[in-house]
Amino acid sequence: xxxxxxxxxxxxLHTQRCWxxxxxxxxxxxxxxxxxxxxxxxxxxxxxxxxxxxxxxxxTYSAFASQSVRECMALLQGIGEKEQFIADLTxxxxxxxxxxxxxxxxxxxxxxxxxxxxxRSAAEAVAEQAESSVPAETRFKVGDICVRDGKKxxxxxxxxxxxxxxxxxx
Length: 170
Fold this sequence. Notes:
Number of helices: 9
Number of domains: 3
Strand content: 5-15%
Order of helices and strands: HHHHHHHHHEEE
Largest sheet: 3 strands, antiparallel
Helix content: 40-55%
Oligomer: single chain
Radius of gyration: 22 Å
Structural class: mainly alpha
Shape: elongated
Number of strands: 3
């Protein structure tokens, strides 16, 4: 596979931290993607020894979900850290169920990479993200009745975003 601008060779990749973090199967996966020219499904077929393309196709997403695998692939393809961060941020923006911890990690990566965050405190951003991650149907008021594990509870206290923080069994 020809090297792209900024890409590194497979031998150079073996000295990188992301490569050292990979399991043996993940190393085989990254090596196979590089060898076959970028076909992820073919790489999963070989690295995980699947017999059918359909089975490999279902495993492909999770096989390439690891942060270390994505970093290795980015290095092989010549994608810089900022471009990779933007791709991860775009993917996270499509996630309806992003949690405050994931948002905080993205914010921290933005600060480390020197990307200027929006001018507001991190606490406000985390609180806003947490509020948007609680679906409207799970926001409670004091006195509401909820069912959990087949048992009924009355809500006695809620936090600032409408999550039940205290309940008593009915």
